[in-house]
Each structure stands twice: as structure tokens, then as C-alpha cells.
Automatic annotation (TrEMBL):
InterPro entries assigned to the protein according to its UniProt record, in alphabetical order: 4pyrrol_Mease, 4pyrrol_Methylase_sf, 4pyrrole_Mease_sub1, 4pyrrole_Mease_sub2, CbiE, Cobalamin_biosynth_MTase
Protein name, UniProt field: Precorrin-6y C5,15-methyltransferase (Decarboxylating) subunit CbiE
Claim: Methyltransferase is one of the keywords in the record: yes
Domain named Tetrapyrrole methylase: residues: 4-193
Keywords, comma-separated and alphabetical: Cobalamin biosynthesis, Methyltransferase, S-adenosyl-L-methionine, Transferase
Domain of life: Bacteria
Annotated organism of origin: Veillonella absiana
Length: 208
């Protein structure tokens, strides 16, 4: 019998924001894979678990071994189709049945927290990559959302945007720990956010 690799988006992280189908799949898992934080929040007694670390090649070997005998459920933060582990898993397991259960991306969650729509926003990531100068160019009324990392945090990105011609008075907001009790949101301008500390893995929303 061929076993299935399930990829489940767990949204911003709080179990309250995982779709029911995702929760059901996670609870029924024999083998569960996810970040340390996700495993703490979602694992059930009796499940075999593997933590996602920087050593993805080792993780892929562990998943391959488990798929011989069991279905495997991999939890990914945010939405499965938005800068997730899904492309890597599809490349590593091209002949394996894969079922994807979408979640809420941290980006859409951030816009919701601000009471803003995102259908007219340019969504980009500074997490492990850098948008082109053309993507960052100023245009009046332009709206953008960025995933950040410790190097390219909101303060750093705010400086880059100002150097790229964005008015320092442009409205912006940095959001981290979304959906958790210690959720932290700072609203301001590109100028004020340049002094913001922390907010490594977070979301920056710019409302031009």
C-alpha cells in the first residue's frame, strides 16, 4: 500500500486558527513533523515526531523511512502555498502521493489585524531573499507586505525603502507573534520604524 505525505498549513501558529480538516489530520497522524513550537502545541500521545531544523536532508531521509510503513503529516507555518516547505517536499518526493491542506498565511493574517485588504497589495519576502529594486520602487498609493528575518527586519527594510525614494512619513506597521497571547503590533511611519528593535521573523505592512 502506498502511503501519503500530508502537508498541513497551521496558519499563524495558534491552534484556534487552523482549519478543522487540518486539525483532524494532525490529530490522526501516526508520524508528525513540524517545528519544535508546532510539535509542542499539536503533538498527541503515541505519535512519532520529528522536528524541522536546518538539516532538511536528514529530515527528508527520516520522512522517507517512515513513508514505507505510515502516512506522514508535515505541519508548515502559514499557508502551504506561500513561501512554505511544500516545494522542497515535492522535489524530494516526486513520486509520492501528496495531499495539501491549506492554512492562513501570516501575511493575510497581518492585513486582517490591521483591518486592511490585501488584494491590491504587492506581497514579497526578505526572508532568505531580496526583492528587486523595481519591486521596491515608490508609487503613490502603493501597498506592500513583507516577510522579514533577523537580518532584514522591519527597521532595516524601512531604511531600504526610504533610500529607494519612499517618503519617510509613509504609514507602516510591524507585526510579530501573530495569533499568540504575546502578539506585538507597532504602527508608525517608515521613519519611526527605523528605530524599532527586534521583530526578526515578522511581517511588515507598508500603506503608501
Amino acid at each position: 500500500m502506498e502511503h501519503t505525505l500530508y502537508v498541513v498549513g497551521i496558519g499563524p501558529g495558534n491552534p484556534d486558527y487552523v482549519v478543522p480538516k487540518g486539525i483532524e489530520t494532525i490529530k490522526k497522524a501516526t508520524v508528525l513533523v513540524g517545528s519544535e513550537r508546532a510539535l509542542e502545541d499539536f503533538r498527541a500521545p503515541g505519535q512519532t515526531t520529528y522536528a524541522i531544523t536546518g538539516k532538511l536532508s536528514i529530515l527528508a531521509e527520516q520522512i522517507q523511512q517512515e513513508l514505507v510503513s505510515h502516512d506522514v503529516v508535515v505541519m508548515v507555518s502559514g499557508d502551504t502555498g506561500y513561501y512554505s516547505l511544500l516545494p522542497y517536499l515535492k522535489k524530494k518526493f516526486p513520486n509520492q502521493p501528496i495531499e495539501v491542506i491549506a492554512g492562513i498565511s501570516s501575511m493575510t493574517f497581518a492585513f486582517a489585524r490591521l483591518g486592511e485588504v490585501w488584494h491590491d497589495a504587492d506581497l514579497m519576502s526578505f526572508h532568505g531573499r531580496q526583492p528587486s529594486p523595481e519591486q521596491l520602487a515608490y508609487r503613490e498609493g502603493k501597498k506592500m507586505g513583507f516577510l522579514t528575518d533577523p537580518e532584514y527586519n522591519p527597521a532595516h527594510i524601512a531604511r531600504i525603502l526610504c533610500e529607494s525614494g519612499w517618503p519617510a512619513s509613509t504609514t507602516a506597521a510591524a507585526l510579530e507573534r501573530l495569533s499568540y497571547d504575546d502578539e506585538h503590533i507597532v504602527r508608525g511611519t517608515l521613519e519611526s520604524l527605523q528605530d524599532l528593535e527586534g521583530f526578526g521573523h515578522s511581517v511588515l505592512v507598508v500603506l503608501g
